[in-house]
Fold this sequence. Notes:
Layout: H1 3-19, E1 22-25, E2 31-36, H2 43-46, E3 49-53, E4 62-66, H3 71-76, E5 77-78, H4 86-95, H5 113-127, E6 129-130, H6 134-150, H7 152-163
Antiparallel strand pairs: 1-2, 3-4, 5-6
Amino acid sequence: MSLERIATLLQNELVLQLNLPRQSKGYYGEPKRGISPPISSGNLVENITVDWIGSIENDDLELVVKMPYYGYWVNKGRRPGKMPPIAPIDRWVVQKSGFSNVIRDQSGRFVSRKSLVFLIRRSIGMYGYEGTEFVQKALANTYTQIVTEMGEYVGEWFLNIIRGYRED
Length: 168
């Protein structure tokens, strides 16, 4: 197994973890209605890349996982308290095709986009949401496959590379 194969394996596992449907839960684990769709707009799945920077010879090899900034929030979740910023929620509502002219209030009138964004922000602020931990699950699954194919030594080396992982 080459370094490129490890990167491809990890990238595929990240996408696989994001594609799994999950029970919608608030931050403290209380279940919400229904199963959460695995992919909302598809932007996160389409923009995940895993690459190696540096070389083994110079002992500066680094595994870099790039994804949109909100991948952090999908992975970790958000605690209740403050409402999230308007702009990302508004962009998401625009990208999400199922929201246009579908949401109605109690009187049967269509809800404006501005009101819909407010309601989503308020819900996140009040209840938060549980993270998917797709990064940790993908790393755990990938580690098992690497150890199976390449042995314990390479698995330990890979773990040391991952321990350098930081969330910037």
